[in-house]
Amino acid sequence: MPHPSDKTQPPGGAHSIETVTSADLDDLLALMRVYCDFYRTDPSDRALLALSRTLMADPAHEGLQLIARDEQSRAMGFATIFWSWDTTEASRIGIMNDLYVAPHARGSGCADGLIHACAEHCVRRGASRLDWQTEPENGRAQALYDRVGAVRESWVSFTMATPPA
Hints:
Distance between the termini: 33 Å
CATH class: Alpha Beta
Largest sheet: 5 strands, mixed
Structural class: alpha+beta
Low-confidence stretches: 1-5, 8-12
Mean pLDDT: 89
Order of helices and strands: EHHEEEHEH
Shape: globular
Radius of gyration: 16 Å
Helix content: 25-40%
Number of strands: 5
């Protein structure tokens, strides 16, 4: 069950941000589908919903998703935080793996609100920081991240697919 303070009204925006519940899954799925299309990936709806349900079932260990809605309760965007650790700091960290705002809501402050809500959840969880990545070509996102006070890191990211079990 969401904490009463999991609903926030970000400053400067006519929208609310809440922790995703099962009642949000249809709207969330539509946003996740467009987000995946943007990144040219195609996980099944079933897999996307399984991810969301896993987070809802164990937010203290797995992470959580947030959904932003406008004043008519229409879904505007979402963010996903996964919990991890940083050995070099010996502390828990939050990883904002996803941040998406629908085209009609861009420039509304929704993305800023989602980032700040993610940071607030990190504070509540005892995480020392919130990390995230974006594509090098995503200049609009990078301008947002600079504006909210994020610091660019010099790390180079790698990924390696693992064989199916």
